[in-house]
C-alpha cells in the first residue's frame, strides 16, 4: 500500500485520480483551497485519509500546505495536479505580486517539491499546449506585455515539464515524470472538451504506484501512459537551471540535490 498526496484534488482530474488510487487500497491525501472545498472533497471521497487546506496562489498558502503534508507524511508519491487554465481574460496579481497563473501552475509545484521530503515518485501535470510555450522567462509575470491568457498558460505548462525534467536530473533516486492528461471536460477544460476524464486521470495514478516496468522509468513526458513528444527546451540543462534560479529568487528556497 502506497501513500499518495495529490494537489488540487477537490474536484476534476485530481479527485478522479485520488478515487482510482483509493479503490486500489492506496492511502490518499487530498488538497483543497479552503475549508468549504475540503469538506466537499471528503464527501466526494470518504476513503481519503485527510485533506490539506491552503490557497497555493500565495507563498504563505503553499508553505501552509507543505507543513500540513509533512505532519501527515512521509509519502510514497506526490502528484502535482493543481493548476488554473488559459481562459483568464486579464492578468490577476497575487498577494506576492506574481501572475496568478504562474504562481499556481509553476511556483506552487516548485515550492512544494522543495519543502516536502522527497517521495519515491513525483508526477507533474502539464499539457499538450506546452509545445507553444516560451521558455525564456522574459517578462514571465506579464508586467510589461499585454495579457494573453492562452500564452501565459502554455508558458506555465512548459515550465512544469522543465521543472519535472530538472528534478529528475537532480534526484536520480526518485521516479519523476510529467503528464499531458488531454483536453478533458473539467472546470478548467470546459464542458466541450472532447477527451475522456477517466482516461485523463489514469496516467498520473498509474505513475504514482504501479510496478509496471513502464511506470518505473523516470524523466519522461507521457500522454495516456505512452511517452509523448516534448518541447526540446525542457530537456536542456541550461533551460532547467534558468527556471530553477528564477524560482529560487521568488521563493528563497532551493530544491536540495
Characterization of the model:
This protein is of the alpha/beta class and 257 residues long. The model has no long low-confidence stretch (mean pLDDT 94). The chain is 40% helix and 14% strand. 47% of the residues are buried. It has helices spanning 12-23, 35-44, 59-72, 100-115, 149-170, 197-209, 237-251; strands at residues 3-6, 27-32, 50-53, 77-80, 121-125, 175-180, 220-223, 226-227. Helix 2 links the parallel strand 2 (27-32) and strand 3 (50-53). The protein has one domain (3-251): Rossmann fold (3-Layer(aba) Sandwich). It has an 8-stranded mixed β-sheet, sandwiched between helices.
Q: What is the number of strand segments?
A: 8
> Roughly how many Å is the radius of gyration?
16 Å
Summarize model confidence as the mean pLDDT.
Answer: 94
Strand content: 5-15%
Task: Give the N-terminus to C-terminus distance in angstroms.
Answer: 28 Å
What is the CATH C level class, in words?
Alpha Beta
CATH topology (fold) name? Rossmann fold
Domains (count): 1
Tally of separate helices: 7
What's the architecture in CATH terms? Answer: 3-Layer(aba) Sandwich
Q: Structural class of the secondary structure composition? A: alpha/beta
The largest sheet, given as strand count, sense and whether it forms a barrel, is: 8 strands, mixed
The CATH homologous superfamily is named NAD(P)-binding Rossmann-like Domain
Helix content: 25-40%
Low-confidence stretches: none
Numbering strands along the chain, what is their spatial order in the largest sheet?
A: 3-2-1-4-5-6-7-8
String of helices and strands: EHEHEHEHEHEHEEH
Shape: globular
Amino acid at each position: 500500500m502506497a501513500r499518495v498526496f495529490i494537489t488540487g484534488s477537490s474536484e476534476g482530474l485530481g479527485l478522479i485520480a485520488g478515487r482510482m488510487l483509493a479503490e486500489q487500497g492506496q492511502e490518499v491525501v487530498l488538497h483543497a483551497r479552503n475549508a468549504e472545498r475540503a469538506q466537499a472533497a471528503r464527501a466526494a471521497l470518504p476513503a481519503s485519509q485527510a485533506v490539506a487546506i491552503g490557497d497555493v496562489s500565495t507563498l504563505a498558502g503553499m508553505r501552509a500546505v507543505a507543513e500540513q503534508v509533512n505532519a501527515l507524511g512521509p509519502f510514497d508519491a506526490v502528484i502535482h495536479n493543481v493548476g488554473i487554465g488559459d481562459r483568464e481574460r486579464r492578468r490577476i496579481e497575487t498577494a506576492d505580486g506574481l501572475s496568478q497563473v504562474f504562481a499556481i501552475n509553476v511556483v506552487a509545484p516548485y515550492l512544494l517539491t522543495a519543502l516536502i521530503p522527497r517521495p519515491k515518485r513525483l508526477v507533474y501535470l502539464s499539457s499538450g499546449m506546452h509545445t507553444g510555450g516560451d521558455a525564456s522567462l522574459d517578462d514571465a509575470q506579464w508586467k510589461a506585455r499585454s495579457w494573453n491568457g492562452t500564452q501565459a498558460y502554455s508558458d506555465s505548462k512548459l515550465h512544469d515539464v522543465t521543472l519535472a525534467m530538472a528534478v529528475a536530473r537532480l534526484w536520480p533516486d526518485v521516479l519523476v515524470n510529467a503528464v499531458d492528461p488531454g483536453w478533458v471536460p473539467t472546470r478548467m477544460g470546459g464542458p466541450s472538451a472532447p477527451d475522456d476524464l477517466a482516461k485523463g486521470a489514469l496516467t498520473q495514478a498509474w505513475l504514482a504506484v504501479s510496478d509496471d516496468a513502464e511506470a518505473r522509468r523516470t524523466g519522461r513526458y507521457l500522454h495516456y501512459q505512452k511517452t509523448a513528444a516534448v518541447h526540446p527546451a525542457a530537456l536542456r540543462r541550461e533551460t532547467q537551471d534558468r527556471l530553477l534560479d528564477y524560482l529560487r529568487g521568488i521563493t528563497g528556497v532551493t530544491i536540495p540535490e
